[in-house]
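== Sequence, structure tokens ==
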Amino acid sequence: MHLKQLNILFADDDIDDCQFFREALEALPVSTRLTTVNDGEQLMKYLGDHIYQLPHVLFLDINMPRKNGFECLAEIKQTEKLKDLPVVMFSTSNAPDKIKILFKTGADIYIRKPSSFSQLVQVIHHALPLAAENIFSNGKLKYILNA
């Protein structure tokens, strides 16, 4: 099954990261529609307001104001209508204990934010099919992607 357009939600408080992410998506041979939110409270409000038209995948930063990525992930996975949303955690941290907690909480993929634009394009390019695989198979595979 192929989607005509992949609806992606990106939650990150860093405006530059949001712009780089948008540009990286545009560099991919995939049709996407990107929505961005800039903190955890905005994220949860957006998901609540769009409960019947959720994105295909959520890219979620860990360090955000008002409600961090850990809190958002836990809330998403404990909410019946949101729990199957594929979540790609996106962070500068590479601490194994944090990654283990994220996977235990329900993250599907963990990406350490790359330092270059080409690496960002590469990890997003690898993450999207994995997230789509989880969308259609409802699989509970866990992935760590490093550029």
Notes: The first strand starts at residue 6 and ends at 11. The two ends are 28 Å apart (CA to CA). DSSP finds five helices and six strands in the chain. The longest helix spans residues 117-137.
